[in-house]
């Protein structure tokens, strides 16, 4: 029981941590999209690629929030998370190492120096969100694998409990049958002694 309770506490803590990480991913996705639309109100081709990364990240975070409380959405989250992770690291590294070239392919609505600073800030947000997404991936796989193991363990325990209950019921029925048989034998013996003695006296 103690081990089971400890595992229960670990599961609750893991689920809570997963919820917080997905919340951070959602906030990161929103922040990235806001920065992009501040830099350019009408996204260019490069801008739309970054918007796509932000949308995948935001969707992954929202689905993650749902799957951390309901279960059953993990497969969809895993697909979105894979696209998000690839896009995040590619976008973050591209902006970090070639921020000027990336900005030159965009149509910033603000002055160049401010747009460059915001783009570098977006790169930092994307990289932090990528790290959080990797943590979500690892922890999410662990939690879902543990849930699957717990499901089969509970199923096995339930089957064992049903088997023990069936054996207990069968044993109770056998004991009841033996008691009934013993009572019947005792009654027959008493009747035999009583009426057998009376019959003997009548014959004399």
Automatic annotation (TrEMBL):
It comes from Sphagnum jensenii. Signal peptide: none annotated. The chain crosses the membrane at residues 12-39, 45-66, 78-97, 124-146. The lineage of its organism: Eukaryota, Viridiplantae, Streptophyta, Embryophyta, Bryophyta. The keyword Transmembrane helix applies. Keywords: Membrane, Transmembrane, Transmembrane helix. This is Tetraspanin. The keyword Transmembrane helix applies. Residues 179-204 are annotated as: Disordered.
């Amino acid at each position: 029981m103690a081990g089971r309770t400890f595992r229960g506490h670990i599961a609750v803590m893991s689920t809570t941590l997963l919820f917080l990480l997905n919340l951070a991913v959602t906030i990161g996705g929103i922040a990235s999209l806001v920065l992009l639309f501040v830099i350019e109100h009408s996204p260019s081709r490069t801008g739309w690629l970054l918007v796509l990364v932000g949308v995948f990240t935001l969707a992954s975070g929202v689905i993650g929030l749902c799957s951390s409380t309901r279960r059953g959405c993990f497969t969809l989250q895993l697909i979105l998370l894979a696209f998000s992770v690839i896009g995040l690291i590619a976008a973050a590294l591209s902006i970090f190492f070639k921020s000027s070239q990336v900005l030159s392919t965009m149509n910033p609505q603000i002055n160049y120096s401010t747009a460059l600073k915001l783009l570098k800030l977006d790169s930092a947000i994307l990289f932090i969100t990528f790290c959080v997404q990797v943590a979500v991936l690892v922890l999410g796989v662990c939690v879902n694998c543990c849930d699957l193991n717990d499901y089969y363990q509970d199923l096995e325990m339930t089957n064992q409990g049903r088997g023990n209950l069936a054996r207990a019921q069968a044993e109770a029925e056998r004991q009841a049958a033996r008691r009934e048989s013993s009572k019947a034998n005792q009654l027959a013996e008493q009747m035999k002694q009583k009426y057998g003695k009376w019959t003997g006296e009548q014959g004399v």
